[in-house]
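hiii, so i know i said id send this last week but things got crazy w the move. better late than never?? heres the sequnce for the chain we talked about at the cafe, plus the structure i predicted for it. fair warning i was half asleep when i ran it
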Amino acid sequence: MTAMKVFRPAAWRSATALLVAGGFLAGCAARPEMTGLPPSPNSRLYAYLIAHGMARGAVMTRQIGPDGLTRLVTLDKAAQQATLNALKLQSSSANRQADQALSNLLADLPQKPPHMTSHPSEQTQKNRLP
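okay and structure toks below
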């Protein structure tokens, strides 16, 4: 009977160790749905405001002439509407449409910086509105 008592705790220990190891491995294999912080619902609005500012800067520095202005205004208006729609609906399809509209607006902007004059204060004076 003593042999039986010795066997039971050893069996329980090995079963417990197996259960703990299995639980640990299952916990390592499970992946959380999302890591980090969830995106802000207003992040697309912030992205639109930045892209709109970039477009305004390109017009003010004359990187976009009158011929490209109509296309830029059309893309900006589409991005604005898609962004407002995404804010209102908060759906994945509206978010994708807003992302695409913002990408189209950014793709239309010139990629190279404006030519700087010899002195930075001269450039600042050029950019001021009359």
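btw The mean pLDDT is 80. thought thatd interest u
miss u guys!!
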